[in-house]
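Friendly challenge for the regulars: who can give me the structure tokens for this chain first? No prize, just bragging rights.
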Amino acid sequence: MANQMAKYEKATKYDYVKKNKTENFTFLNQNFCKKGQTILFGDSITEIFNHYELFYAYTEKTGQAVYNRGISGDTSNRLLERLQDNALILEPKNLVILIGTNDIGCGFATPEYIALNVQRLIKETKEKSPKTHIILEAVYPVNKLMNVASVQMVGRRTNKDIATLNALLKEVAENEEVTFLDLTKELSNRKGTLAKEYCYDGLHLNAHGFKVVAEHIIPLLKK
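First reply, four minutes later:
Bragging rights claimed.
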């Protein structure tokens, strides 16, 4: 197990690009962002979220800004490392967390380990920013058979492993008394894989998929 986790830590270590992204977020948070807003927090699926367009009406109506703090390739351990500077420093009113697919993709982390990191994310948020409303998302399904690109993109990820993780994440959400949002059914086709109309590579959502996600997140946000 120790050897596996050492490989996991090495595989998830930030390169120059990822370090630059987290440093940019820290700079923006310290100098330009307002406290008490909504933050989307996660990996590449969050990073490419068309949040400006899909949350525009919500922002216009409520005055609540939505900041995207997704970094491609992020894993639960790295998200935990940047939680304070990239998110909690703003004392967000809402924190939407989506993480775990890359942990599975690495092939080294167990669902239990991922869930433990997510629990630590929640506990630290509740401790340092107790007024923050936390929405924990279930990891989205994948579709390895969609096209040639999807085989490589999905890699080791399987919907069975994702379902196992999501069951643990649901338990974490219930135990920590935070909102759990599972959009597996909404994003899946009849075979239970990620519907091709909602993605382009079997893993990442397109604008149609993100529209579904936004429509389910917005009613859960505290105004």
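The CA atoms of residues 54 and 214 lie 6 Å apart. The two ends are 44 Å apart (CA to CA). Your move, everyone else.
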